[in-house]
Request: fold
Amino acid sequence: MKEIKDYIRTIPDFPQKGVQFRDITTLIQDADGLKLAVDTMCDMVKDLDYDVIAGAESRGFVFGAPMAYKEHKPFVLIRKKGKLPGETVSQAYDLEYGSTEIEMHTGSFEKGARVLLVDDLIATGGTTEAMIRLVEKLGGVIAGVCVLIELPDLKGREKIAGYRLDSAVSFEGD
Reply:
């Protein structure tokens, strides 16, 4: 039986020289790979008490929405600034080459709701930290963070110290 790592393609020198890009398209294009990923991520957080799942555009949608469906939980979109039609709250954060903002609708969940954040990957932790701040601005409580892939060499876990982080696979030093 294949493991999650077996479905993930590594593309060297993308988007720039020296980067080993972990491509999930090969995983989600395979029905068995996608099922394995979603089932594994759900199993990792089965002991968590949470009310809602939130995922960041766009790959957080790929895993967060099926997890929400499987666990019969609401799914909340975290999108790039200017993409949501209603009243929003935003959070700016830095990228390797600049900065950006993400947003959520103000009525995405009740104050005090326990939110599970889902994404495909944690690298430096910038996006994850911004998602945490955004949920907290709306009065949510972070129940945990669940990602498919962790790149521990980039120290994202350290950036969100104090929050539970579960990752299905780790690509360390390769």
